[in-house]
Design a protein that fits this description.
Chain lengths: 313, 809
């Protein structure tokens, strides 16, 4: 790994100030950014890492004002084992628990998990081997190359890399709000950005808190991964069924978390049973478009939606 | 004791006819591992841990292209980088000399041609730190000529295919493991006359070595040449280094430090293939400083692979399950073994025409990683299972119908066993009987796709069989000394390979010498300069070969000790030019060695057990351990050494010198989720006839480890190549998936051991290390077929392939 400057920020404002300088990146758990630096996947090597862990008061889970509030520096393991989250927002607890491995969950934060860069073997190839669209190049190598794990809902600006977060679809399904150093953003809009971005965050903007409205509904999260002990999702899915409404979000199927509105309409107000869940799963993948090698992911997505709905019974 | 057979085909082999039902140490459980504390405490030292004063670090330039030529390298900027000490390039005369000493596709070479993405090529930079070396490599100004590439082994075999090497007429490998064809009987006539025929097609993706420790080499050359190297054969490397640098062998030391694991490939190959120690040595010599080369995991991933092959064939068979003919072609990439050996070695199939062309592709060099028998084993398993399913027969019955050797049946093997001092036992039948009973095979067997479970998954089982091909061959040597306190030192150099075989050596020594296991130590570093090397060239057969040397040496040590206690002896003491000789009576006057025995460290008269002396009492009068104050002198200590060479089973053209008689049967039960294509292993039962389990726990360790590797090899591991650039896309353990410890349902693995005594190792043992991990992957395909009724012969069998077979992907 090459040399870089490491700055311990003590306040949000100070961190934002450091991040406003060129080629600076935030680090919290470091489980994503350090790997990208070690492999030198980016076209420009980060000069400075601004450590957010040294900012006090950003790790908490509490209920306040009819919302669940989670500090951005809360590690995933704490969310996974939290009684409040497990009881009232099980989709998020299950999503946190399914992320990576125990060691990584003890390091990785909820803020970092939703800010990680998209995954694609070309984008993340060591030594910046492929100057792909996501890096400002002029072609998507995966489109004509290896695309077994890529988008099944088309390309965004020509890129078929997927968002790999496990917690992101849970936050979308739970109708969460992402609070940053500058604003509050509906979770559903947090990743709605053109490439090369992964989130709508500005360079000097820092996630500070996750806010989830209280719900009496039932939620669930399911994940399909090749390797169970540690792996990014092939497809994951979070569902919230609250009375006659449903919010269903898939991830790892598109550049950003994919709200399966067709599935929501299919299951809303209906009994949760095998037949209706199956129909919702089919509705979720309506319009899916397979690349050369990822047709199987459509079947997986269909199944994940079905199983997440059934888990809400 | 074993007998030295004047045997068949002009060869000789050791066979142990001195076997018992029960031993004191051999075959016992609960022996404290000699290497256990080092490994679990973190005290074990690996090559990567070794740091020497003044040590420099070296980093290779690697190719960013799948096929390329270096036209020039300007080292000016790199040379000027602070901390850079030396840069060696392909134009150096000694590198050109090294090229002449190599053959095949040399690994870690420094030429101007790169044949695969990530190949070490062109230059190596030496610097004060690893980071500086890394930075400086990026400053090398390289002018590349990018060439077209080819990745597929079948395409590479076609006329007019893109050439890997523009100087060759085609991609056929002209050296090393060459294309092989084994013809036996008349296949065409047999297929024409067969009652049934069935075709098969199969593919296996490339598999990574997956060593725990990445490639590491450290050389210090100050007077003596000292080398630390992640290798399977330290003694052989000592010879290679001495020969290449033309230094006396007694001036070269190759240290045997821990390695974490050893899977073969570039670890055992000699300098003909692997030039890393030679290049490191050149750098150490020229800089006058110790130089260390450490590969990153990414570099390690690109250093060499195994298994890449595409096969197809036709099987002829009778209605009763008797296989009459097999004809097949298997295309290998860069390296392979024509998959005929298992048909020849352990079947009575009379007609074979097995062809295994090997062609170069622009992928890393192949080597024997995790056993080069995998494709041999795969095809053998396919043939048995396809015949069984075509006839709707139980595959265990097909197996018993076709067991034999070299086209001959079990009656012939029975004669062979009896003629050479073995028991006439039917190894395969014993494995099948034990496995079927414990697995509940008969109650679980069903036609393909016929059983859906209450959880909605499809149920499948499978059986595969083969021989235990890790028999005994190679040469080994060891020294044994009895110290003056009665403890025993085994002295030999051995690499960190296998499960616990240093402890198993101590078990043999304890057994044969009658000295408690706890009093026996394995001193691995004691003879790094003399090279008592407990490591046959065929690492696969390590323990069964080295165990012979230990057994013989231990017997000799015991005989020497008993000889000593029955004789008068003289000791010398004194100093300053005034030695004093003292004569002592025998410890057991009037007795001969035949009258005595040793048990639990006590020498006793067999006819009068009360007449006894401890080994410690006796050894106190011997010289090992030095003179103690006030002593009256010492006799020479007991020190013996033994060498043993056991011949290989066959020559390169498959002319067999002896037959392998131990068999294995593997039973597997799976559940298949037809909505996701996921496969769940619910019962894996390897039944291995190891002849004699010298350390049952070590055997089980190999079985558990083998099943683990079988599943990870069969369901997960897969190199990914970009078809447009030839770049390898997943050189890390995240995207190249190897099962984690929590991915395996260890409680679903049920190991079984059969001990028939039919091996050529000591106590009738044979090896087991490579077998389960190489054999059980193929159970997966057969079990999945039994579950869903669809064949998937394309490894690894991942969910996408299962879904595709089901019409869902």
């Amino acid at each position: 790994m090459r040399k870089f400057d490491h700055i311990n920020a003590t306040t949000i404002e100070q961190a934002a100030s450091f991040l406003s300088k060129s080629n600076a990146y935030a680090i919290a758990g470091g489980t994503d950014i350090l790997g990208t630096m070690k492999d030198e996947i980016l076209s420009v090597y980060p000069e400075t890492l601004v450590n957010l862990n040294t900012i006090p008061g950003l790790s908490y889970i509490k209920e306040e004002g009819g919302k669940l509030l989670i500090g951005a520096l809360t590690v995933l393991e704490d969310i996974a084992v939290s009684d409040i989250v497990k009881t009232k927002y099980p989709a998020l607890a299950q999503a946190a628990f399914s992320t990576a491995s125990p060691h990584l969950r003890e390091m990785g934060t909820i803020g970092g998990n939703i800010c990680q860069m998209n995954r694609c073997l070309y984008f993340r190839s060591p030594d910046n081997r492929f100057n792909c669209l996501r890096k400002g190049g002029n072609m998507c190598y995966a489109m004509a190359g290896y695309n077994k794990f890529h988008s099944i809902f088309g390309a965004m600006d020509g890129c078929v890399a997927v968002n790999p977060s496990d917690t992101a679809p849970a936050l979308v399904a739970l109708n969460a709000t992402i609070k940053t150093s500058k604003r509050e953003i509906a979770a559903e809009e947090f990743w709605d950005v053109a490439i090369p971005g992964s989130t709508v965050l500005e360079a000097d903007e820092i996630v500070t808190e996750i806010q989830i409205p209280a719900t009496s509904g039932k939620s669930a999260f399911v994940k399909f991964a090749i390797r169970k002990s540690i792996d990014f999702p092939v497809v994951n899915c979070a569902v919230l069924i609250d009375g006659s409404s449903a919010r269903i979000c898939l991830n790892a199927v598109y550049n950003k978390p994919y709200r399966a509105t067709g599935a929501e309409e299919a299951i809303a107000g209906k009994a949760i049973n095998e037949e209706n869940a199956e129909a919702a799963g089919t509705a979720a993948v309506k319009g899916a478009l397979a690349l050369q090698s990822n047709k199987w992911k459509i079947q997986i997505a269909r199944t994940m939606v079905k199983r997440a709905i059934l888990a809400c019974a | 004791m074993g007998v030295w057979h004047g045997s068949w085909d002009g060869n000789q082999i050791w066979v142990d006819t001195d076997v018992k039902e029960q031993y004191n140490y051999v075959g016992q459980r609960g022996m404290k591992r000699k290497d256990g504390y080092d490994k679990v405490s973190g005290k074990a030292v690996y090559t990567r841990d070794v740091k020497l004063p003044g040590m420099l670090y070296a980093k290779y330039l690697t190719s960013p292209y799948a096929n390329a030529k270096i036209l020039s390298i300007d080292t000016t900027a790199a040379q000027a980088y602070p901390g850079v000490r030396y840069i060696l390039t392909y134009e150096d005369p000694q590198i050109l000399e090294l090229k002449l000493a190599t053959r095949t596709i040399p690994t870690f070479y420094l030429g101007n041609r790169a044949y695969y993405y990530g190949q070490t090529v062109g230059a190596i930079v030496v610097a004060d730190t690893e980071q500086i070396a890394d930075e400086a490599v990026k400053l090398l100004d390289v002018e590349w000529e990018e060439l077209s590439f080819i990745l597929d082994e079948v395409e590479a075999a076609q006329p007019g295919a893109t050439l890997v090497d523009e100087n060759q007429e085609n991609n056929s490998i002209p050296y090393g493991y060459s294309a092989t064809r084994h013809v036996q009987g008349d296949v065409e006539a047999a297929l024409a006359a067969a009652e049934h025929t069935v075709n098969f097609n199969a593919k296996k993706a490339m598999t990574y070595g997956a060593d725990v420790e990445c490639v590491s080499c450290l050389i210090k050359w100050e007077g003596k040449l000292e080398c630390w190297f992640h290798t399977q054969c330290p003694g052989r490397w000592r010879q290679s280094l001495a020969a290449f640098f033309e230094v006396p062998l007694n001036n070269v030391i190759v240290h045997s430090v821990y390695q974490g694991s050893q899977w073969g490939q570039w670890n055992w190959t000699t300098s003909q293939y692997n030039t890393l120690p030679a290049i490191t040595g050149i750098l150490a010599k020229r800089t006058g400083r110790p130089v260390k080369v450490l590969f990153s995991r990414q570099e390690n991933f690109l250093a060499g692979e195994m298994d890449c092959s595409t096969q197809s064939g036709t099987i002829g068979f009778k209605s009763d399950g008797t296989i009459t003919a097999v004809k097949s072609t298997t295309y290998f990439a860069n390296m392979g073994l024509g998959p005929f050996e298992h048909f020849v070695e352990n079947s009575r199939i009379p007609n074979l025409n097995i062809y295994g062309p090997i062609n170069r592709v622009n992928k890393p060099p192949m080597g024997a990683i995790r056993c080069e028998q995998s494709i041999n084993s795969y095809q053998f398993c396919i043939v048995n299972d396809y015949v069984a399913s075509e006839l709707n027969m139980d595959p265990t019955e097909v197996a018993l119908k076709n067991d034999g050797t070299e086209g001959k049946d079990m009656a012939y093997l029975s004669q062979f066993k009896l003629a050479h001092g073995f028991p006439d036992r039917d190894s395969l039948k014993e494995c099948i009987d034990l496995g079927k009973a414990d697995f509940g095979w008969d109650s679980k067997w069903h036609e393909p796709g016929a059983r859906k479970l209450p959880n909605g998954r499809m149920h499948g089982i499978s059986f595969t069989w083969d021989h235990e091909w890790q028999d005994c061959c190679g040469d080994s040597s060891i020294g044994i000394a009895i110290n003056k306190d009665g403890s025993v030192s085994l002295m030999a150099q051995v690499s960190d390979i296998g499960v616990n075989h240093r402890s198993a050596c101590c078990q043999i020594a304890a057994e044969e010498m009658g000295i408690p296991y706890e009093k026996i130590a394995f001193l691995n570093k004691a003879h790094e300069t003399v090279t008592f090397e407990l490591e046959p060239p065929e690492g696969s057969a390590a323990f069964t070969a080295l165990g012979w040397a230990v057994k013989r040496a231990a017997m000799q040590a015991k005989a020497s000790l008993l000889e000593f206690v029955c004789s008068e002896f003289e000791t010398s003491s004194g100093w300053g030019g005034h030695p004093r000789l003292t004569r002592y009576p025998a410890f057991f006057p009037g007795k001969s060695p035949e009258d005595l025995d040793i048990k639990d460290g006590v020498i006793y008269e067999v006819a009068n057990p009360e007449n006894k002396k401890t080994v410690a009492e006796v050894a106190a009068r011997t010289g090992f351990g030095g003179l103690s104050a006030g002593s009256s002198g010492h006799a020479p200590g007991v020190f013996v050494w033994q060498f043993l060479a056991q011949p290989a089973k066959a020559d390169s053209t498959c002319n067999f010198y002896h037959h392998w008689m131990c068999r294995q049967g593997n039973f597997l039960e799976v559940e298949v989720d037809t909505e996701t294509g996921e496969v769940f292993v619910t019962n894996a039962m390897p039944v291995n006839d190891v002849g004699k389990a010298i350390s049952p726990e070590a055997v089980e360790g190999q079985q558990y480890g083998g099943v683990y590797w079988a599943f990870t090899r069969g369901m997960l591991e897969e190199y990914i190549w970009d078809p447009l650039t030839g770049v390898q896309l997943n050189p890390n353990y995240l995207d190249y998936r190897v099962a984690g410890i929590k991915d395996v349902a260890w409680d679903k693995i049920n190991c079984r051991i059969v001990e028939s005594g039919l091996g050529f190792g000591p106590y009738g043992s044979c090896g087991v290390g490579e077998v389960p991990g190489t054999q059980l992957p193929w159970n997966l395909g057969q079990a999945i077929y039994n579950a869903i009724g669809k064949r998937i012969e394309d490894y690894p069998i991942t969910p996408d392939k299962v879904l595709k077979a089901l019409g869902k992907g």
